[in-house]
Amino acid sequence: MTGFRDADVLDDPVGESLRGHHAHLARRLGDAATYVPGVATFSAVPAEPDAEAWADLAKLLGPGEFADMFSCPAVPPPDWEPVFVLEGRQMIWAGHGGPDLSGADIDSGVAELGAQSVPEMLGLIERTRPGPFWPRTHELGTYLGIRDGGTLVAMVGERLRPPGWTEISAVCTAPEARGQGHAVRLLSALIARVVARGERPFLHVAEENSGALALYERLGFETRKPVTFRGFRTP
């Protein structure tokens, strides 16, 4: 994609995050890495892992545990049980054709969500199921929400943080609050924050989620590459 350099770190967003911005949230053994419990189940091995790397990850996670390999193209040994396969794409915010980040009211009605908001965040996730979210997932970055009558009805947040980039995730709106522009307002506010600190937004979306794809394209995101998400259970 023109105008974006150093995008090669997005080929291993989990590994790059665990080695860098999220190193304080990482567990490591040899060449394998994963997040601490309660934050995320994403795991990483080298681009061309050998048997030892897979063995290290299995030891790190423990027997019968879930390893979300995210967009890692490498496939573990045959004694690892496949859990899911999902086709998707990785998208980068192109910096044009999207929201006006200079608007004075871009943060209007938008609240930052922290540890005290976890119960209501988990409640909204349970109702909308945008993707994996755990009791400590909010520690990955900034989370923003919109409340209606004191009830959290929409949310968006930061997830993976490879050098120079921030992944936007957990985009969700309660069924009764859809069609009111909450997702656009929250995405615009979060994109503005990411850009203001000199980083570039990117995200991942399931190929089957045509509504989300249309929204992200309308906000200025462009497809970088197709990806396949995979999860396994350790032997």
UniProtKB/TrEMBL annotation:
Limits of the N-acetyltransferase domain: 108-235
PROSITE patterns the record matches: GNAT (PS51186)
A Pfam family of this chain: FR47
Keyword Ribosomal protein among record annotations: yes
Gene3D superfamilies: 3.40.630.30
A GO MF label: acyltransferase activity, transferring groups other than amino-acyl groups
An example Gene Ontology CC term for this record: ribosome
Record protein name field: Ribosomal protein S18 acetylase RimI-like enzyme
